[in-house]
């Protein structure tokens, strides 16, 4: 099961992608979330000043569109915690934005 996230500006798409990953992984499916293009921005750590969160740039740590969905950070934890989820980021997309692996 592969989910590709290519946007940073749509909180609903971010939530739906993570929700699909979390549900499938918790049901035993092997799931890969691939971050491409602006999708890599959604995983920037809180406090990173290379691009501040805004109404056009959402972060997993801070995004919650409301019930019945869970906050994106909780969905990510469920996804990764299942043992069936992997997150891959496009190295070229990360580098072209001036981000650092593991520190941003």
Automatic annotation (TrEMBL):
A Pfam family per the record: DsrE
InterPro entries to which the protein is assigned, alphabetical: DsrEFH-like (IPR027396), Sulphur_relay_DsrE/F-like (IPR003787)
Organism domain of life: Eukaryota
Protein name: Uncharacterized protein
Organism this protein belongs to: Pseudictyota dubia
